[in-house]
Design the sequence.
């Protein structure tokens, strides 16, 4: 059973039942799932969690799903690795990498989508939909296939076909729209009003959001039931960042970990960094920007959870930093060449941000720091194609020795 | 009749222009403000637009042409 009690507007406090509702009717702000933590505390324990499956669903009591038959393609409980080599490079002795590249469709989106699709089936939807070309689309299409549900993925018509293979393989209905991403999202908003479909980031958004809490849960459990001193994570809409924080706070509320004193640092690409701008300007409002960056997976110009992410960064005594496209690429290479992890560009942004924060002394040498790598590199490997350097030899030992200077 | 939920972001030079008033008078669009914050150098307004689709489209196009940024409330503009 679920301990979710309803939806609540974070801005004005209006409450709603657990239905597929997109935003608050009064102030049009995002909604959040509320829980009966008292009841939860009576049944949840570290022991109970540890007996669960080695997936994100070991934390099902903390998620807003009723049914036992979750739609799971094997997501979560990804490695938390001590990054000694990278730490040495950056002057950090207690650096860990949470490697969410290893989810089934290669990004953290699988966590959110698994919850959203499970909930969609509970609500009686037989069709899922989303607007995306990358990580979200692949995850939705994969989960729809597993759930035996129809899926519609909407993309602008000018997207290169090669980018869609990783989505098309799961056989969703791929709809190309003549227009920009703005036009695609507007069409989706209109379709969500017309059709009884589960739109992952529209009418299922409050439930989708909860899946990302499992990143916070897992890190705390993997660290031996404690929260890290510092977190460095990427921010697009701000949802992931706020949910890592919420996950840690919930564990503390339930006395599964001690008080949370984690400093939360968010990182964005310079070409799409509205939350960083607001943080640096000391503003309480996140003003939209027009994204212009190669880090497409976190290029959201008007982040729906921007304000809340800003508050988490401020209230936790953390911060915000941005990375140029060049710095992001260097970050990808550094992570691969020190820890053997090929992350997408958003991961490069995290490493670049981590490097700046360490150099500035914001993150101290002995602070236990977790950097969240949220997606794998191969999907957009063309941005680092310059790494390919070959040694050309003739098919004999002498040529090999001559070219590589290795004695045979 | 359709409803569309949007956020208008005004640059400094348009703060004193009665854009929302003009929108509802030039076009058959009802405007319903839900949240707003307007200072002397920047402003944003979250509102619901109600009317026929083509009137809302025309109205939004006019607002954008005036230099106001218009973002939908629902969904995230996501490329990746």
Sequence:
């Amino acid at each position: 059973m679920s301990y979710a009690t309803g939806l609540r507007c974070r801005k004005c406090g209006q409450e709603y039942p657990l239905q597929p509702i997109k935003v608050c009717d009064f102030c049009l702000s995002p909604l959040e799932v509320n829980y009966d933590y008292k009841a939860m505390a009576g049944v949840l324990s570290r022991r109970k969690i540890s007996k669960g499956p080695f997936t994100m669903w070991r934390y099902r009591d903390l998620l807003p799903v009723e049914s036992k038959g979750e739609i799971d393609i094997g997501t979560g409980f990804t490695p938390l690795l001590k990054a000694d080599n990278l730490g040495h490079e950056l002057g950090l002795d207690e650096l860990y990498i949470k490697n969410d590249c290893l989810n089934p469709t290669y990004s953290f989106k699988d966590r959110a989508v698994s919850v959203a699709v499970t909930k969609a089936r509970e609500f009686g939807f037989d069709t899922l939909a989303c607007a995306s070309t990358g990580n979200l689309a692949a995850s939705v299409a994969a989960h729809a296939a597993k759930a035996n549900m129809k899926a519609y993925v909407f993309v602008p018509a000018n997207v290169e076909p090669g980018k869609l293979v990783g989505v098309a393989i799961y056989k969703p209905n791929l709809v190309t729209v003549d227009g920009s991403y703005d036009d695609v999202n507007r069409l989706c908003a209109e379709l969500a009003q017309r059709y009884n479909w589960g739109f992952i980031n529209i009418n299922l958004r409050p439930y989708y959001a909860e899946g990302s809490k499992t990143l916070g849960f897992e890190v705390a459990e993997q660290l031996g039931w404690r929260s890290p001193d510092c977190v460095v994570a990427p921010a697009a809409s701000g949802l992931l960042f706020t949910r890592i924080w919420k996950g840690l706070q919930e564990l503390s509320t339930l006395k599964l970990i001690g008080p949370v004193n984690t400093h939360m640092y968010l990182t964005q690409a310079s070409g799409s960094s509205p939350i960083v701008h607001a943080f640096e300007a000391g503003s309480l409002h996140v003003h939209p920007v027009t994204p212009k960056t190669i880090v497409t997976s976190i290029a959201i110009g008007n982040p729906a959870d921007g304000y809340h992410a800003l508050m988490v960064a401020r209230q936790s005594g953390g911060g915000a930093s941005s990375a140029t496209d060049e710095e992001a690429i260097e970050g990808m290479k550094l992570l691969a060449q020190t820890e053997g992890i090929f992350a997408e560009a958003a991961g490069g942004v995290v490493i670049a941000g981590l490097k700046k924060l360490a150099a500035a002394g914001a993150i101290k040498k002995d602070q236990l720091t977790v950097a969240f790598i949220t997606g794998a590199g191969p999907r957009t490997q063309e941005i680092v194609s310059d790494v390919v350097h070959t040694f050309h030899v003739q098919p004999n030992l002498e040529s090999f020795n001559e070219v590589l200077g290795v004695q045979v | 009749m359709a409803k569309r939920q949007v956020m208008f972001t005004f640059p400094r030079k348009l703060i004193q222009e009665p854009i929302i008033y003009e929108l509802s008078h030039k076009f058959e669009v009802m405007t319903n403000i839900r949240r707003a914050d307007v200072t002397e150098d920047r402003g944003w307004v979250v509102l619901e637009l109600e009317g026929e689709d083509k009137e809302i489209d025309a109205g939004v196009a006019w607002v954008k042409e005036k230099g106001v940024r218009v973002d939908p409330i629902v969904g995230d503009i996501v490329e990746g």
Summary: Chain A touches chain B through 44 residues (CB under 8 Å).
